[in-house]
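The data layer described in this paper is built around a simple, fixed record for each protein. We quote a single record here, exactly as it is kept in our systems:
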Amino acid sequence: MPQLICKDLTLGYEGQEILSGVDFSVNSGDYLCILGENGSGKTTLMKTILGLRKPMRGSIVTGEGLSRREIGYLPQQSEIQKDFPASVREIVVSGFQGQCGLRPFYNREEKRQAEKNMELMGISHLKKRCYRELSGGQQQRVLLARALCATQKMLLLDEPVAGLDPKVTEEMYQLIGSLNKEHGITVVMISHDIEAALHYATHVLHIGKKIFFGTTAQYTERLRAREGDSYGKA
């Protein structure tokens, strides 16, 4: 059974439908890139998968032993969040909050795992620094380390390279690709970068007036066919 199955979803809020007929599944180890225009419903879809919103219709089912509490999430950052006055270590270990239950503190294993995730993201030397003093790329590494504290199974990333310069963007893509290929973590990422999607992703979900879901190779063929049609009409 796939890790995640979304069946005939209709999404919206305040009674306003913004997206319908969404069908796709994600297997363990997949790298799914969600593409679409601004306002097409990408972030709403991600929040619905996380259980932060309810679908208007349809269903979301998890499998392979995955629960929604085990999904790591890296949302888009607001300007207020970028100015958060906490240390890197405090922010990273806070990724375990959902697993603490009634415990008012983090246990030894959680602190050890937080240290491991900071090392994995190359930010161990920053752990005592204040988060708001970091560069945009460093902040994203911190938030990715935090998301990893919530999961070893699936990451949901909402525009993780937004606002980063090309060099740092490429470094982030390589980090995410490493988590997927070398550590076996399933990745579901919202992006506007079609070129990067075709390079890194195994599958593409393109949402809009028409919805496409398939492998990256199938999406590439679809793009080529559309370009051929446009050329023929010119």
